[in-house]
Automatic annotation (TrEMBL):
It is found in: Cytoplasm. It catalyses: L-histidine = trans-urocanate + NH4(+). One of its GO terms (cellular component) is cytoplasm. The modification 2,3-didehydroalanine (Ser) is found at S142. The keyword Transmembrane helix does not apply. Contains an active site 4-methylidene-imidazol-5-one (MIO), which is formed autocatalytically by cyclization and dehydration of residues Ala-Ser-Gly. This is Histidine ammonia-lyase. Keywords: Cytoplasm, Histidine metabolism, Lyase. It comes from the Bacteria. It comes from Bacillus timonensis. GO terms for biological process: L-histidine catabolic process to glutamate and formamide; L-histidine catabolic process to glutamate and formate. One of its GO terms (molecular function) is histidine ammonia-lyase activity.
Length: 505
């Protein structure tokens, strides 16, 4: 059970809640802050003060004063009108993360909701009822309005939900489970949708998957080094300490640890003086991507515990300020940075694939074929990797440099952070497939060299991988192999991945 406070949520806790379905509870102190904040809103309504989003319209309509009798309808109309997202839904794990992160933000006590709103979000999480939320339609400022409106619809008993592996109409699931829909009151609709939780939730899932991929990149690169009889001297600690980047030193150490005891690696001058960059510069390239991932982690953990709606209520309602914490620029830039960093794992991997299959660059059978000419072997797998890498170059174009004014030019600069986070997710899926192709090729290469000469760590990986994909003894439909290895890499319970995490720590 994870206790939520609005202040201390970590990525490790998010992983437990969103992937392992650990339940959540609300701290007493946070609930008290929520209650105090709500009293402030009720006093504003009673005193007939004019406050944005409580008794005014939204966006360009902020100057329209709403009658007392219409305050609740204002919130309902807001959710229904803003729930106009389009496209495929976010992955269910992202939807779960969105519920969690919106709940955590509301528990800070600056948003003016009633406790029942927070408790309803807890119910969704603990009963594994997740809103169906279309991916497209957010500008990443004024909050992730469209995606979060689809989340809010579910609290009202409307929209659709993921439940028990299927998609249902929300009302049917609520009736089955005896859940009462909420009726929104003053400010509550705005408090639910004015935030960055779509881009941040997608970003959190991206980071969790990307860090696993980064570790897998090191393992698969180590396997390739054995397949190509790479030179281990380039990973000597003195080289990396001389430059001083901790992440680069970490990668070099992981490669050394993984290849400890290998009879397939060589020393400089034995077979060649130095390797190509895609082998020799693994710590420098992978390490630089780790630097970016560490930056992204820092920004995500701040945003996960941030108050991002508008207006915010301070000093028991004596200070209500309209500001711009809903603007997604910090996460937009972080997601763009992540896109570039993760894409590089595939870029250098594809070059290692080329060195594994190109007979002009190695002494292995051409394209790792068992019968070169009659059988094409891994020839077209390299094409696929090259295609995915090229696609990533397009996806890696920064979304945050774009902005289109909205709401009659009232909202005249936006972050496009949700687009950036979605593109980062697509890049991650492409990178995983490129690594799967390198893995298949490297497995074949070490077989030609002699698996009995492998390091204990890479040999253990080899044995596990061979349970997923067999040796290439003749041409077959390699698309199946790529997808099987890709799915295997995506699983979170790989023993060798856990071991690599320990090495990094």
């Amino acid at each position: 059970m994870v206790e939520l406070t609005g202040q201390s949520l970590t990525l490790e806790q998010v992983k437990r809640i969103c992937y392992d379905y650990e339940q959540v509870t609300i701290s007493k102190e946070s609930l008290q802050k929520v209650e105090q904040s709500r009293k402030a809103v009720e006093k504003i309504v009673t005193d007939k003060k004019t406050i944005y989003g409580i008794n005014t319209g939204f966006g360009k309509f902020s100057d329209v004063i709403i009658a007392d009798d219409d305050v609740n309808d204002l919130q309902l109309n807001l959710i229904r009108s803003h729930a106009c997202g389009v496209g495929e839904p976010f992955p269910e794990v992202v939807s779960r993360a969105m519920v969690l992160l919106r709940l955590n933000a509301l528990l800070k006590g600056f948003s003016g909701i009633r406790p029942v709103i927070a408790e309803s979000l807890v119910t969704l999480l603990n009963m594994k009822i997740h809103p169906v939320i279309p991916q497209q339609g957010s500008l990443g400022a004024s909050g992730d309005l469209a995606p979060l409106s689809h989340l809010a619809l579910v609290l009202l008993g409307e929209g659709k939900v993921h439940y028990n592996g299927r998609i249902f109409v929300t009302q049917d699931v609520f009736l089955k489970e005896g859940i009462q829909p909420v009726v929104l009151q003053a400010k509550e609709g705005l408090a639910l949708i004015n935030g960055t939780q779509a881009m941040t939730a997608m970003g959190v899932v991206n980071w969790l998957e990307a860090t696993q991929l980064a570790l897998q990149s090191d393992m698969i690169a180590a396997l390739t080094l054995e397949g190509l009889e790479g030179i281990i001297d380039a990973f000597h600690p003195a080289i990396h300490e001389a430059r001083g980047y901790q992440q680069q030193m970490d990668v070099a150490k992981r490669i050394r640890d993984l290849l400890s005891g290998s009879q397939l690696i060589t020393r400089q001058g034995e077979k060649r003086v130095q390797d190509a960059y895609s082998l020799r510069c693994i710590p420098q390239v992978h390490g630089a991507s780790w630097q970016a991932l560490d930056y992204v982690k820092e920004k995500l953990e701040i945003e996960m515990n941030a108050a991002t709606d508008n207006p915010l209520i301070f000093e028991d309602g004596n200070l209500v300020i309209s500001g711009g914490n809903f603007h997604g620029q910090p996460i937009a830039i972080a997601m763009d940075f992540m896109k570039i960093a993760v894409a590089e794992f595939a870029s250098i991997s594809e070059r290692r694939i080329e060195r594994l299959v190109n007979p002009q660059l190695n002494d292995l059978p051409p394209f790792l074929s068992s019968q070169p000419g009659l059988q094409s072997g891994a020839m077209i797998m390299q094409y696929v990797a090259a295609s995915l890498v090229s696609e990533n170059k397009t996806l890696a174009h920064p979304a945050s440099v774009d902005s289109i004014p909205s709401s009659a030019n009232q909202e005249d600069h936006v972050s496009m952070g949700t687009i950036g986070s979605r593109h980062a997710y697509q890049i991650i899926q492409n990178v995983r497939r490129v690594l799967a192709i390198e893995c298949i090729c490297a497995l074949q290469a070490v077989e030609y060299r002699g698996t009995h000469k492998m390091a204990p760590a890479t040999q253990a990986f080899y044995k596990d991988a061979r349970k997923i994909v067999p040796s290439i003894t003749q041409d077959r439909i390699f698309a199946n192999d790529i997808e099987q290895v890709t799915e295997w890499l995506k699983k979170n319970n790989l023993v060798w991945t856990a071991n690599l995490v320990l090495i990094r720590n």
